[in-house]
Amino acid sequence: MQTDAGYDPDRIGVRLEPDFDFSSSDYAALFSASNATAFQHPLWLTEFYGKLAPARDASPVVVTGRDESGRLVFLIPMILRRIRGFRLLEAHDLGVSDYCAPVIRADARLALAAQPHLTRNVAHALPAHDLLRIRNCRAETVEDWRLFFTDPFHDHDFAAHAAELGTDYDSWRAAALPDTFRKQLDRKKRRFFKAGKVTIERLAEPAAIRQAIAAIASLRAGRFEGDMIQWPAVAEFYAAVAVAGSTDGVARTYRMSLDGEPVAYVFGLCHAGRFNYLLIGGDYERFGRHSPGLVFYDELIREWIAEGGAVFDFTIGDEAFKADFGTTPTRMMTLETPRSGLGRLALAARGARRRFNAWKTTTS
Fold first, then answer.
1. pLDDT at res. 1
2. What is the CATH number of the domain that holds 200?
3. Per the database record, which ranges form the BioF2-like acetyltransferase domain (predicted)?
C-alpha cells in the first residue's frame, strides 16, 4: 500500500544503529524534514551521545526506520543504563534534554501510522531492559511516541512555559505582561541602567563562551537542589554545545555587564523561531537589588523579537516568574512501564520514595 507521500509502510525497515552518526547529512536531512525540537538537533545529539552519555555510563540505543532507498524516515534517540541492578531504557534525557521526542519525517507520519507491525518491529530492535522510561514529553509529541510505544502516558508533576511573541516588543509587552509586574520591572530597569553602563553581549569567542558556562556553574553553586551543571561532565557538555553552536546561532551564550563587571550570563538554544532558555547564572550577592535575571530576560526577549523570533520558551519548571512574562503552560507527559519482575520492583520502589518525599514535604 502506497501512502500519499509515496511511502510503503510495509517496506520501512526498522533496526538498531548504536553507532549512528548524528553529524551526518543523512540525519540533517531527517531533522530538517521533521517537527523535532532543538533537543533533537544534530549538534545537541552529537555532543549528547559523544560526551555526556559515555560519562554517565549510558549506552546509545538509536532505533531507525528507513525506506527502500535507505533514506531515514524516523529515528528514536534513547539510552540504556544499569541502575541499582536493573536495566533502564529511557529517552535521551539525562537531566539536560528538556523536550524528548522521536524524529519523524513530517510527510511520513501517515505511512507510519498505517504500519500495523511498527510497534512490534521497534520492540524487537530494542535491547533487553527491565524498565522503560520516557520523560519530558510535550503533550503534542505523545502521539508521535505512541507510533512506537503503546504504553500509557501520564501527566508529569511540572509543565513547560513559553511566551508567544508579536512583531513589536512594546506592543507585546503591553499586552502580555501584567500591569503591576511591568511597572515594577520598568522601575528596576531604570534604576539598573542609571547605575552605570549596561552592556549585553552575545559571546562568539570559544574561550569567552567556555568561561561563561563555567561562571554559570559557579554562580549557581548551592542555589538549586540537583543542579545538573554542577556535574563536571554536564558542564563540559553544555560548554561543547555552546561553542559548537555559536557559529550558526543554534546555541547562544550571553553576558550582561555593568561598567565592565559581569552581572549575569544566559545560555539557550534556538530553532525554528523559538529561543529555548536553559541556564542563567547571576551575581546576586553584588547585584541582586537590580533583579538582574528579570532584566536580562526582558532584554533578551526584546532582541529576539527584533530578530523575528516567534517564541521565548522558558522550558520546563513552574517557577512563578515565568507567568509574569505572559507565558502559557504546556502539559508535560511521562511514561514508565516495567518489562520484567525486576522492573516492577524498581518502579514500586521509586513510587514509594516519591510518596515518602511528598509526605516529608507536607509534614515539615
1. 44
2. 3.40.630.30
3. 181-322
What is the rounded CA–CA span in Å between residue 95 and residue 294? 24
Place of cell 512506537: 148
- Here the cell at position 355 is 510518596
Burial class (CB in 10 A: 0-12, 13-18, 19+), 330: middle
Single-letter residue type at 200: I
Q: Residues 28, 68: one domain?
A: yes
Helices (H) and strands (E) in the chain, counts: 14, 13
Residue span of the structural domain in which 238 resides:
166-309
Residues 213-264 pLDDT 10s: 999 999 999 898 889 999 999 999 999 999 999 999 999 999 999 999 999 9
pTM over 0.90: yes
C-alpha span between 2 and 7 (Å, rounded): 6
The predicted pLDDT at position 364 comes to: 61
